[in-house]
Design goal:
InterPro entries: DUF1120. The protein is mainly beta. It contains 2 helices and 13 strands, in the order E-E-E-E-E-E-E-H-E-E-E-E-E-H-E. The N and C termini lie close together (8 Å).
Protein backbone atom coordinates (compact mmCIF):
# COMPACT_ATOMS: atom_id res chain seq x y z
CA UNK A 1 0.00 0.00 0.00
CA UNK A 2 1.48 3.35 -1.02
CA UNK A 3 1.10 6.80 0.54
CA UNK A 4 -2.04 6.05 2.52
CA UNK A 5 -2.55 4.10 5.66
CA UNK A 6 -5.78 2.37 6.58
CA UNK A 7 -5.01 -0.14 9.30
CA UNK A 8 -8.01 -2.30 10.16
CA UNK A 9 -8.36 -5.16 12.59
CA UNK A 10 -11.31 -7.51 12.83
CA UNK A 11 -11.46 -9.25 16.17
CA UNK A 12 -13.66 -10.99 18.70
CA UNK A 13 -15.78 -12.99 16.29
CA UNK A 14 -16.54 -15.91 18.59
CA UNK A 15 -19.48 -18.06 19.67
CA UNK A 16 -19.77 -19.86 22.98
CA UNK A 17 -20.28 -23.18 21.18
CA UNK A 18 -20.88 -24.55 17.70
CA UNK A 19 -24.62 -25.03 18.28
CA UNK A 20 -25.69 -21.76 19.86
CA UNK A 21 -29.41 -21.45 20.58
CA UNK A 22 -31.67 -19.05 18.69
CA UNK A 23 -31.29 -15.55 20.05
CA UNK A 24 -27.72 -16.07 21.27
CA UNK A 25 -25.47 -13.16 20.37
CA UNK A 26 -21.84 -12.34 20.02
CA UNK A 27 -19.94 -9.21 19.05
CA UNK A 28 -18.07 -8.24 15.92
CA UNK A 29 -15.75 -5.28 16.48
CA UNK A 30 -14.08 -3.39 13.67
CA UNK A 31 -11.33 -0.95 14.62
CA UNK A 32 -8.86 1.13 12.71
CA UNK A 33 -7.32 4.53 12.18
CA UNK A 34 -7.52 7.04 9.34
CA UNK A 35 -4.54 9.37 9.19
CA UNK A 36 -5.11 12.94 8.05
CA UNK A 37 -1.52 13.16 6.87
CA UNK A 38 0.70 10.27 5.89
CA UNK A 39 4.44 9.94 6.24
CA UNK A 40 6.72 12.24 4.27
CA UNK A 41 10.23 11.77 2.87
CA UNK A 42 12.79 14.56 2.49
CA UNK A 43 16.33 14.50 1.12
CA UNK A 44 18.54 16.80 3.19
CA UNK A 45 20.09 19.62 1.20
CA UNK A 46 17.67 19.19 -1.69
CA UNK A 47 16.98 16.41 -4.13
CA UNK A 48 20.02 16.91 -6.39
CA UNK A 49 23.56 15.69 -5.76
CA UNK A 50 26.07 17.61 -7.90
CA UNK A 51 29.24 15.67 -8.71
CA UNK A 52 30.76 18.67 -10.47
CA UNK A 53 32.54 19.03 -13.81
CA UNK A 54 35.34 16.75 -15.00
CA UNK A 55 37.68 17.14 -17.97
CA UNK A 56 37.64 14.23 -20.40
CA UNK A 57 41.44 14.51 -20.56
CA UNK A 58 41.61 13.70 -16.83
CA UNK A 59 39.65 10.47 -17.22
CA UNK A 60 40.93 7.02 -18.17
CA UNK A 61 40.54 5.95 -21.79
CA UNK A 62 40.79 2.26 -20.89
CA UNK A 63 39.25 1.75 -17.45
CA UNK A 64 36.06 2.64 -15.61
CA UNK A 65 36.36 6.00 -13.86
CA UNK A 66 35.13 6.17 -10.26
CA UNK A 67 34.16 9.84 -10.02
CA UNK A 68 33.27 10.21 -6.34
CA UNK A 69 31.08 9.09 -3.47
CA UNK A 70 28.80 11.65 -1.85
CA UNK A 71 26.82 11.50 1.37
CA UNK A 72 23.24 12.59 1.90
CA UNK A 73 20.42 11.85 4.34
CA UNK A 74 16.88 10.70 3.66
CA UNK A 75 14.55 11.75 6.49
CA UNK A 76 11.16 10.09 6.95
CA UNK A 77 8.62 11.65 9.32
CA UNK A 78 5.21 10.28 10.30
CA UNK A 79 2.41 11.95 12.31
CA UNK A 80 1.99 8.76 14.35
CA UNK A 81 4.32 5.82 14.88
CA UNK A 82 4.20 3.78 11.69
CA UNK A 83 5.99 0.81 10.18
CA UNK A 84 7.10 2.33 6.91
CA UNK A 85 9.97 1.71 4.53
CA UNK A 86 10.96 3.03 1.14
CA UNK A 87 12.06 1.87 -2.29
CA UNK A 88 14.07 3.34 -5.16
CA UNK A 89 13.03 3.02 -8.81
CA UNK A 90 15.47 3.94 -11.59
CA UNK A 91 13.95 6.48 -13.99
CA UNK A 92 16.94 6.18 -16.34
CA UNK A 93 17.35 2.40 -16.37
CA UNK A 94 17.81 2.28 -20.14
CA UNK A 95 20.99 4.38 -19.81
CA UNK A 96 22.76 2.16 -17.26
CA UNK A 97 26.25 1.33 -18.56
CA UNK A 98 26.41 -1.75 -16.28
CA UNK A 99 29.96 -0.99 -15.19
CA UNK A 100 31.74 -1.72 -11.93
CA UNK A 101 31.22 1.00 -9.30
CA UNK A 102 33.91 1.25 -6.59
CA UNK A 103 34.98 -2.20 -7.74
CA UNK A 104 32.19 -4.06 -5.92
CA UNK A 105 28.84 -3.11 -7.48
CA UNK A 106 27.72 -3.89 -11.02
CA UNK A 107 24.48 -4.49 -12.90
CA UNK A 108 21.17 -2.88 -13.78
CA UNK A 109 19.38 -4.38 -10.81
CA UNK A 110 21.67 -2.75 -8.25
CA UNK A 111 22.79 0.44 -10.00
CA UNK A 112 21.18 3.38 -11.76
CA UNK A 113 21.63 5.03 -15.16
CA UNK A 114 22.96 8.57 -15.66
CA UNK A 115 22.02 9.37 -19.25
CA UNK A 116 23.50 8.92 -22.72
CA UNK A 117 26.04 10.71 -24.90
CA UNK A 118 25.08 12.45 -28.14
CA UNK A 119 26.10 9.20 -29.83
CA UNK A 120 23.57 7.25 -27.72
CA UNK A 121 26.23 5.58 -25.56
CA UNK A 122 25.39 4.94 -21.91
CA UNK A 123 27.60 7.24 -19.84
CA UNK A 124 27.91 5.36 -16.59
CA UNK A 125 26.05 4.37 -13.45
CA UNK A 126 25.68 5.16 -9.76
CA UNK A 127 24.89 3.08 -6.70
CA UNK A 128 22.98 3.94 -3.52
CA UNK A 129 23.70 2.24 -0.20
CA UNK A 130 23.55 2.79 3.55
CA UNK A 131 26.55 4.44 5.20
CA UNK A 132 27.67 1.64 7.53
CA UNK A 133 29.80 3.96 9.69
CA UNK A 134 26.90 6.27 10.50
CA UNK A 135 24.56 3.30 10.76
CA UNK A 136 26.51 2.01 13.76
CA UNK A 137 25.03 4.81 15.89
CA UNK A 138 21.61 5.01 14.23
CA UNK A 139 18.57 6.03 16.26
CA UNK A 140 14.87 6.40 15.50
CA UNK A 141 12.05 8.16 17.34
CA UNK A 142 8.77 6.61 18.47
CA UNK A 143 6.62 9.19 20.25
CA UNK A 144 8.68 10.53 23.14
CA UNK A 145 11.06 7.58 23.06
CA UNK A 146 14.30 7.33 21.08
CA UNK A 147 15.63 3.84 20.37
CA UNK A 148 18.85 2.43 18.94
CA UNK A 149 18.17 1.16 15.44
CA UNK A 150 19.56 -0.93 12.61
CA UNK A 151 18.75 -0.35 8.96
CA UNK A 152 17.25 -3.46 7.44
CA UNK A 153 16.33 -4.40 3.89
CA UNK A 154 13.96 -6.86 2.22
CA UNK A 155 13.20 -7.57 -1.43
CA UNK A 156 9.70 -6.42 -2.37
CA UNK A 157 8.97 -9.87 -3.77
CA UNK A 158 9.77 -11.57 -0.44
CA UNK A 159 8.78 -9.13 2.30
CA UNK A 160 9.35 -10.80 5.66
CA UNK A 161 12.91 -11.92 4.92
CA UNK A 162 14.96 -9.05 6.30
CA UNK A 163 18.72 -8.52 6.38
CA UNK A 164 20.98 -5.80 7.73
CA UNK A 165 21.79 -3.12 5.15
CA UNK A 166 25.47 -2.30 4.58
CA UNK A 167 27.62 0.03 2.48
CA UNK A 168 28.68 -2.93 0.35
CA UNK A 169 25.09 -3.65 -0.74
CA UNK A 170 23.54 -1.29 -3.28
CA UNK A 171 19.76 -1.20 -3.25
CA UNK A 172 17.89 -3.15 -5.91
CA UNK A 173 15.77 -0.83 -8.02
CA UNK A 174 13.86 -2.78 -10.67
CA UNK A 175 10.05 -2.64 -10.55
CA UNK A 176 8.67 -5.61 -8.61
CA UNK A 177 11.99 -6.56 -7.01
CA UNK A 178 13.06 -3.31 -5.35
CA UNK A 179 14.55 -3.52 -1.90
CA UNK A 180 12.37 -2.12 0.87
CA UNK A 181 14.53 -0.29 3.40
CA UNK A 182 13.34 0.44 6.93
CA UNK A 183 14.52 0.43 10.55
CA UNK A 184 14.34 -2.19 13.26
CA UNK A 185 15.30 -2.11 16.91
CA UNK A 186 19.07 -2.65 17.15
CA UNK A 187 20.05 -6.29 16.96
CA UNK A 188 16.75 -7.37 15.41
CA UNK A 189 15.57 -7.98 11.88
CA UNK A 190 11.98 -6.92 12.49
CA UNK A 191 10.55 -3.63 11.16
CA UNK A 192 9.80 -1.14 13.94
CA UNK A 193 7.17 1.61 14.10
CA UNK A 194 8.60 5.12 14.23
CA UNK A 195 7.74 8.80 13.91
CA UNK A 196 11.12 9.93 12.66
CA UNK A 197 14.15 8.19 11.18
CA UNK A 198 17.16 9.42 9.23
CA UNK A 199 18.74 7.15 6.62
CA UNK A 200 22.41 8.05 5.92
CA UNK A 201 23.10 7.28 2.27
CA UNK A 202 26.22 6.93 0.17
CA UNK A 203 25.85 7.66 -3.54
CA UNK A 204 28.76 6.46 -5.70
CA UNK A 205 29.15 7.56 -9.33
CA UNK A 206 31.27 5.99 -12.08
CA UNK A 207 31.55 6.69 -15.81
CA UNK A 208 32.80 4.42 -18.55
CA UNK A 209 36.19 4.78 -20.23
CA UNK A 210 36.51 7.71 -22.62
CA UNK A 211 37.28 5.50 -25.61
CA UNK A 212 33.87 3.91 -25.37
CA UNK A 213 32.13 7.22 -24.61
CA UNK A 214 33.75 9.02 -27.59
CA UNK A 215 32.60 12.40 -26.29
CA UNK A 216 33.36 15.46 -28.42
CA UNK A 217 31.03 18.00 -26.74
CA UNK A 218 30.20 18.91 -23.16
CA UNK A 219 27.86 16.22 -21.86
CA UNK A 220 25.53 16.30 -18.87
CA UNK A 221 25.44 13.52 -16.31
CA UNK A 222 21.78 13.16 -15.43
CA UNK A 223 20.49 10.42 -13.15
CA UNK A 224 17.00 10.23 -11.68
CA UNK A 225 15.34 7.82 -9.25
CA UNK A 226 11.96 7.87 -7.53
CA UNK A 227 11.71 7.28 -3.78
CA UNK A 228 8.40 5.66 -2.82
CA UNK A 229 7.17 5.08 0.73
CA UNK A 230 5.92 1.57 1.46
CA UNK A 231 3.77 0.87 4.50
CA UNK A 232 4.64 -2.46 6.09
Amino acid sequence: MKKALLATAIAALTMSNAWAADGATTELRVTGKLLVGGCTATVNGGNALDFGSHLISDLSSTAVNDIATKDTDLVIECPSATKVGWTLTDNKADSNAEIWITGIIKGKGVSFGVGKTAGNVNIGAYAVSIDSVKAASAKAVNGEDTFDADYIVSAAASTGLWAKATTETSFRNQEGTQDIITVGAKGTLEPAAYNNATYPLKVSLAVDNTTKLAISDDTDISGSATITLRYI
